[in-house]
Amino acid sequence: MNNVIEIKAMSKEQAITRALKRMEATPEQIVKVVEKQKSRSFIFGLFEKEGIYEIEISKEIVKKEEEKVQHTQGEEKREVPKKKEVKEHRENHKEKTHTEHKKEQPVVESVDNSKVVEAKAKELLEYIGLNLRVDVNKIHERTYLVNLYGEDNGIIIGKKGKTLNSFEYLLNSLLKDYRIEVDVEGFKEKRNETLRELGKKMAEKALKSNKAVRLNPMPPRERKVIHEIVNKYPELDTFSEGRDPKRYIVIKRKK
Fold first, then answer.
1. Which of 8, 103, 248, 250 is least surrounded by CB atoms within 10 angstroms?
2. Helices H / strands E in the chain, number of each
3. Radius of gyration over alpha carbons of the chain, in Å?
């Protein structure tokens, strides 16, 4: 009688690989694979749910494979090369590989992936139902600025830029190989001025009260603005606590 097991996986190939590893079997032992429940992905593959596959594995082939392995091992024993020959072969192979690698070392070029970033930003905007134009500029290696324009600019900004921060965070999550900054018609420069004023106000509060002051959660770019302002006060210390996207700044007197 054959073995029948259920495997959770995102694809049929992944299910077979997991089954073979669990049962210590070979691909020749697979008799049948049945997809009982399809895998699913949500929000452009950001969240995924594995499917369920029923896999039947033959026991009969196991014996044949064991006999084949034993036979092969016997052949190998009769044809084991001398230690000197093995050593010379390894040294020659190592020298050849090193020379080829040196000759064929690729030239690294700077690639502009603005179109990739633009396509993903448009895809995300379409998903949340906002009508905005996308303009992408490369700042430097793997860093891009996404500018948004249009009738829904107020919606994407949100209260104090919170919606914009969330959009930027999600876009960076979808494009993990890049660093993406998102702005809406120069909003961030205006926001930076507001943050500078907030930094001064909170610094003064920490000095007067002699107590630690905790600010609301902010993205890394906004926290940097606050740190720069508070660092101008020699009596104060500033640091961040928590994890993104809920990481926040603490301002307090130095000991």
1. 103
2. 8, 11
3. 30
Q: Is residue 241 part of a domain?
A: yes
| Cα distance between residue 123 and residue 5, in whole Å | 39
Nearest to 208 by CA among 190, 231, 182, 233: 233
The percent of residues in the chain predicted with pLDDT above 70, rounded, is 75
pTM for this prediction: 0.48
Query: How wide is the angle at C-alpha 125 spanned by C-alphas 196 and 110, nearest 5°?
Result: 75
At 85 the pLDDT is 52
pLDDT band at residue 16 under the 50/70/90 scheme: confident
Residues 118 and 180 in one domain: yes
Long-range pairs for 150-158 at CB < 8 Å and ≥24 separation? Answer: 153/184, 153/185, 153/187, 155/130, 156/125, 156/130, 156/132, 156/184, 157/184, 157/187
Domain containing residue 178: 114-185
